[in-house]
Amino acid sequence: MRVYFTFDPRPDLKESLVNDFPEVDFIFHKTIDDKELAKAEVLVTYGEDLDEEKINIAKKVKWIFVASSGIEKMPHQAIAERGIVVSNVRGIHKKPMAESILAHLLSIKRALPFIYKNQQEKTWNQKTKLYELNGSTALILGPGAIGSEVGRMLQAFDVYTIGVNRSGESAPYMNETHSMDKLKELLPKADILISILPSTVETRYLLNYEHFTLLKDHCIFMNFGRGDLVKTEDLIRALEEKQIFHAVLDVFETEPLPGDSKLWEMENVTISPHISSRSSRYLERSFEIFKRSLRKWMNGERNLENKMDILKGY
């Protein structure tokens, strides 16, 4: 079996794979080589380097392992037509992303940007408002693996958590869980609105200006899912009109965020360049999932961990 990595992982991770699977030929490249792609039976990629042409070249590939949770940039139709199995690393982001979300929340509530600015300017200034996280209500769009971990951490701060998903079925660490059709009824309850939704047909531009008008004017909006959840112009309008208190954005409609975007200059916006999921342990956790799935694949099993419906996007 020939497994082709379109990125070059750390030496210790490569060595571990080779030692654990001596019967497999592993090829590691920093970019895609078409000759190697044509020989591969299993492809390991971050997903963004694949297009329809590459899938046509990869005639022997039966399984694509995506070392990322998002697959929106992959050639869905071409992969589906070939019947290629796709799985990803869903769930490995929950620890770093939940910590990032909590860090941003506490930073805003406890005025850390104000404190850091004063330190740089050597200014003793106590004129700022400080708020507490406890006693607030968080509305979490997408209480899956990441959202539930966020809920667990927030509940430790006595935050009431409300999850919103497609089915309305209960989710871990949610005090309540509702279906997406109840969204407008739930928005007025939120002191914090957190989205961890993927990019799908159902979630694209799910939020609009009207939704922001339903939120409390002290609400903090946090988008850590995908940037096409809301049109940038609608969000900017809501922020300019002070419909919400603050927005923390890790994802954007266009990435990198253009230098002329109004978002850069707004005092009630925190911009994170899509790095909330990063961690020194990212690939380590990815390889743990890949090893389990590779063992299954070699045994003839096709119901892999985190197997995806490529056309649905999840």
Automatic annotation (TrEMBL):
CDD domains: 2-Hacid_dh_1
UniProt keyword list: NAD, Oxidoreductase
Listed transmembrane segments: none
Domain D-isomer specific 2-hydroxyacid dehydrogenase NAD-binding, chain residue ranges per copy: 102-276
Taxonomy, superkingdom: Bacteria
Residue ranges occupied by any D-isomer specific 2-hydroxyacid dehydrogenase catalytic domain in the UniProt entry: 14-302
Gene Ontology terms for molecular function: NAD binding; oxidoreductase activity, acting on the CH-OH group of donors, NAD or NADP as acceptor
Pfam families to which the protein is assigned, alphabetical: 2-Hacid_dh, 2-Hacid_dh_C
InterPro entries, A to Z: D-isomer_2_OHA_DH_cat_dom (IPR006139), D-isomer_DH_NAD-bd (IPR006140), NAD(P)-bd_dom_sf (IPR036291)
UniProt family annotation: Belongs to the D-isomer specific 2-hydroxyacid dehydrogenase family.
Record-given protein name: D-2-hydroxyacid dehydrogenase
Organism the protein comes from: Ureibacillus thermophilus
